[in-house]
Amino acid sequence: MEAVQPYGKVINIGNMEEQTKEEWESSVHGEYSKVEAFIPIEARVLAPGAEELKSRVSTDLIQAEFGDLAEHDDRLLAAWLRMINAKLDAIISFLEKDREEFCHMPHLSVELSGGGISMPFAAPAAPGDRMEIKMMLPFTTPVALYIYGKAVKLELGRLWVNFSPMDEEIRDKLIHYVFLRQREIFREHRENRRSAE
User: What are the CA-CA distances from residue 172 to residues 96, 114, 169, 175, 177 (Å)?
Assistant: First the structure.
């Protein structure tokens, strides 16, 4: 299927059986459908011997506004509430730092699936290097993920990474995003065809 600009293209839909055994084994995507996307993302090579980390969802990127409440008549209860409020403020400021990291990531053109990713990468990396990838999936409520995997190859400024085993909840988020992108691309392609007629 041709690329539909600016949305990209769906890859490996309906032609999985046409892949050769070599293509299948060398693909970072394996049995998963892959799709082109333009998302906030960055990656880094983990130091050798670094702790084995598990892929995870970062904090939900939801902002809320709360008004001030009147002071409670019970002085002891008011003191407890102030202490709880201070602790919550400390937690929120910690989470804000995490959110800032994700909000300032560059948007890059990637090829994403539930099994792996290829993306532009300027730093040195070698096959077998452990990678940490931070990405934000642009759902209605954005989902920020830390994903871990191993570099498969780096060629002409593009890096291929096989994802490490992860919780099904995390993989489901990736697969759901790929499905939504596929649907968006098909819809855009159909609309472009209709407007060309």
Answer: 26, 8, 5, 5, 8
